[in-house]
Amino acid sequence: MEDANPRLKRILEKVRAKTFFEDLAEYGYLMQYVNQFMKKEFDTDEKFKLKVFKILYQYSKYPDNELAVYYLSHLNEVMKSFTSKVN
């Protein structure tokens, strides 16, 4: 599958079944579930945290404070880097 062309990969990604996390995000319960059952993994595993945030960004119909704080903190770091290079 790694040798498949990019267009086919995108098509296959769109036609796959949604995951449990994607369903939870769509209905606004993903962070509640993660905080209740997977808090330690969320706090310690950066890859898992990014996966959860990506799912929230793509599937959530509702605003999420943790996602907003995450993106704002990264924006803040980028702006600090930018201003230090400009000055």
What does this structure look like?
It is a single chain. This protein is mostly helical and 87 residues long. The protein has a domain at 6-62. The chain is 77% helix and 0% strand. Helix 2 (20-26) crosses helix 5. It is extended and about 50 Å long.
Quick recap:
77% of the residues lie in helices and 0% in strands.
What is the strand tally?
0
Helix content: over 70%
* Percent of residues in β-strands: under 5%
Low-confidence stretches: none
Topology at a glance:
Blueprint: H1 6-15, H2 20-26, H3 30-37, H4 39-44, H5 46-59, H6 65-86
Q: Any descriptors?
A:
87 residues, mainly alpha, extended, 6 helices
